[in-house]
Amino acid sequence: MTHPLDDVIWRALTSSQEKFAEAGDFARRFPTDITALAAVSSLTAEGYDSLASLPSAKTPSALFLESPQEPPAGWRVIESTPLLQMAHENGTRQTKKLDFIELTGADAPEMLALAKLTKPGPFGIRTHELGDYIGICDSGKLVAMAGERLRIPGYTEVSAVCTHPDYLGCGYATALMAVLMERIRDRGEIPFLHVRPGNLRAIELYKRLGFTDRRLLHLLVIQKCTD
């Protein structure tokens, strides 16, 4: 029996976030300026051909797979690494809060700069359109942020949790996640997230917040070779 969070990118792009989808017969993906996340309905030549036919196919595509896979000839592997999916199933609420701001399109360049510095995962100039994004500023400078990315019925992903290196240890990530988790719970949904297993600092934080391991996935980032 499948779980709603299995094949979550495909589910998002065929349900709650279908309006963002570049769609082919056997593939879906977000536009490049939103995020590199993509999915194929099956890991077949037809699936990869369908992915290659999408408008953003010349840029990298990030797939969440059940296990490591080699793409067919004609694709270049940019990254291939385990990815841990965690969910917050117990319904407990967090209380730590700090002053924060709602981030909008006007903040997108600064959000993108912080994401490039801290590398929380695929992030684009329009990623903020996927959900609520909030941040903490110091002297007018964005120093921490977090937001919502993938959505399917009943679940919302907490993503882009990042803090400028000069502000680590201030509790900003905990505070921002607490706000987002409360909003998600108030909508009757369950928060979930993805993290690289080697990011022990982040995993420790997520477990303190009540997230538990759900399953180990595999992140495959590929790009179609050009002639």
Task: Provide the descriptors you would attach to this structure in a database record.
single chain; alpha+beta; Aminopeptidase; eleven-stranded mixed sheet; 5 helices; 11 strands; 22% helix
How many beta-strand elements?
11
The helix content is: 10-25%
What shape does the CA trace take? globular
CATH-assigned homologous superfamily of the largest domain: Gcn5-related N-acetyltransferase (GNAT)
Number of helices: 5
What would you report as the Rg, rounded to the nearest angstrom? 17 Å
Q: The CATH topology of the largest domain, please?
A: Aminopeptidase
Low-confidence stretches: none
- The structure class reads alpha+beta
CATH class of the largest domain: Alpha Beta
- Note the beta-strand portion: 25-35%
Count of distinct structural domains? 2
Q: Separation of termini?
A: 42 Å
Elements, N to C (H/E): HEEEHEEEHEEEHEHE
| Main β sheet profile | 11 strands, mixed
